[in-house]
Amino acid sequence: MNTDSFTYACAISYAEPDNEYAAAIFRYLDKHNIAVFYDKNEPTRFIGKPLSEELLKIYSEQAEKIVILLSADYVDEGRKYPKHEARAAIYASLSKKNSLIIVRLDDSHLPGLNPDIGYICAKKINSGAKYKPLEIAKLVCEVVKKKSILKLQP
Fold first, then answer.
1. ∠50-58-138 over CA atoms, to 5°?
2. What are 54-100's pLDDT values in tens digits?
3. Of 15, 11, 138, whose CA–CA distance to 69 is shortest?
4. 3-state DSSP call for residue 7?
5. Please, what is the Cα angle at 109 between 9 and 62, to 5 degrees?
6. What is the 8-class DSSP label of residue 96?
7. Which band of pLDDT confidence, cut at 50, 70 and 90, is reported for residue 154?
8. Spatial separation of the C-alpha atoms in residues 61 and 38, rounded to whole Å
9. How confident is the model at residue 1 (pLDDT cuts 50, 70, 90)?
10. 3-145 domain in CATH 2.40.50.100?
């Protein structure tokens, strides 16, 4: 995988109800100088542009790794953009353009995703309680840092 061609070390794909996790991951990666796409950090990026085309570029071409926050909300039939992002990311990972980092927030299944792929589980094994967003962000950061793009400091 040629990291020179990527704009972002990772992009975060999530459903709006899971924004607490997405925001925590963004803040933690950003604090560690990792180039990350998080839609709320680039509010003007989509103005005047076809959203589906921009998302396709980000999730299939511009990000080296895609963090998918997989939940019932993410796979909900009424939410079209998470599905669009996931399809682009899965396709790119199959063609070895990027890799996926799956964070399972619950037991939801994402159509098209290999069920055998390793993932970060947001539920603690012994208690069933969820890890805090910051704990998940630290785990994601460890995975993303492996051979990723660091932001240049001004």
1. 135
2. 999 999 999 999 999 999 999 998 888 998 899 899 888 887 777 89
3. 15
4. coil
5. 20
6. T
7. very low
8. 15
9. very low
10. no
